[in-house]
Amino acid sequence: MGALVVVAALAAGGGYWAGTGLGVPADARSGAAAGTPAGAVDQGAAASATGERTILYYRNPMGLPDTSPVPKKDSMGMDYIPVYADEQPDDAGVVRVSPARVQTLGVRTAVVESRTLAVPIRASGRVEIDERAQAVVAPRFDGWIERLHVRAVGDVVRKGQPLFSTYSPELQSAGEELRIAERLQRDSSADPVAGEAAARLAEATRARLRNLQVGGQAGPRQTLHAPVAGIVLDKAAIEGARFAAGEALFRIADLSRVWVVADVYERDLSQIRPGQHAQVTLDAFPGRAFEARVDYLYPTLNTSTRSTPLRLELDNPDGVLRPGMFARVELETGGVAPTLVVPASAVIDDGERQVVLMALDEGRFQPRPVRLGARGGDFVEVREGVQAGERVVVSANFLIDSESQLRAALSNMNEAAAPPPVHEAEGRFEAFDAELGSVTLTHGEIPALKWPEMTMDFGLASPELVRGLAPGAPIRFRFEERGPGDYVVTRIEGPGDAATPAAEHRHD
């Protein structure tokens, strides 16, 4: 029973805070108006020392949820009412729990601190070949494959290792042409013109052979070698088959280093930069994480998915990362400047508002609304509502359930404990609007609300209250303040009948 009483008391404090809002604007709640007693005491002390009261803000004279940092008037010409620092309640919404009961419940607290928040970005991707570490073997001449030295896809080759030997009539013709040109050059020593022509022919033939990538070899049979070390990914070469110039016969790639290309959403692009650390996980190796670095962020955006490709580089010395594998990427991001954070377990979120329980001194707890920012790991950014060094409750997670279960009952309890304010005034009946259920009255000054003499509309609890009243009739009336800007007339006394009311409607 004792624990239930504490739960109800703390949840009641949360309901009271949500129901009243303390009548303080968002900007004021982050300071002295946010329920920080020390701040209020300091401002009050400063005001006493100077002899001047500190104005926090100006509120709407009709009780509407509208404030202003500077003096102003409302639509009816009424001045906004100043709210002074020494008028703020010190213990609004505070619930007191005995230290012994706090220890029994196991309530733990944490300090609001400033830190750089790490916000992970998750994306899906695939393992791909490093395009800079692959090569294709495509002869520049026509011919036949006489012999294969590497016969299967997946074979590991060294740089310079023989792949296949060829026979090419085109190379045989070029070789014969070179030998004839060289012989003419030697035999034309007596004829300088013929010798010069033979020399030019021989050099042109050598250039042609170099362009065919056979170097200085002049012969129909050639052996082609692996241009890079790696693994054979594709092999179109078949022993005895004919090939055409430019046909790709081998594709070799070095898989000791691979890429992971992932798609990141447009909203996350501002948090990604080259060199950023990342972790890659694959379905093929559950429980194992591969370290990676952001190598490149592509300059294009896919308009259908609103995402941009991101390239990561991973070392693959044991060759377990195979091109085409599905990969999950998690990037570690965070703001450059530290920000105020609280543990995520400290936040009570009912979908409409977010509240933290402030741990004050001597077993006092105060619900305080907050405005949250980014989430990262076990922490969440608080942009408004708390200050560094304050303490929040992090282990009272049962309040989340109890707050939702007791909300309706606590709301009724609060209404019964705090009936709506009632005011009385003298004035004149002007008109009754049956369709809207409102009445127009002219009243004198009402000091309790700081209202001057004016004509305004009120809600009417019952049409019986104005039966028999003529426009211009003097009256004395009573009205309730049922909410911000909601004023309802519940009693009207007719002319010459100050002791007996003409009609009355009670609000229960």
UniProtKB/TrEMBL annotation:
Query: CzcB-like C-terminal circularly permuted SH3-like domain spans which residues?
Result: 341-400
Keywords from the UniProt entry:
Ion transport, Signal, Transport
GO cellular component, alphabetical, reads: membrane; outer membrane-bounded periplasmic space
Report the domain of life of the source organism.
Answer: Bacteria
Q: Which GO terms describe its molecular function?
A: transition metal ion binding; transmembrane transporter activity
| One annotated GO biological process | copper ion export
- Residues covered by the CusB-like barrel-sandwich hybrid domain: 135-253
Query: Which Pfam families does its entry note?
Result: Beta-barrel_RND_2, BSH_CusB, CusF_Ec, CzcB_C
Annotated ranges, domain CusB-like beta-barrel: 257-333
Does the keyword field hold Transport? Answer: yes
Q: Which family does it belong to?
A: Belongs to the membrane fusion protein (MFP) (TC 8.A.1) family.
Q: What is this protein called?
A: Efflux RND transporter periplasmic adaptor subunit
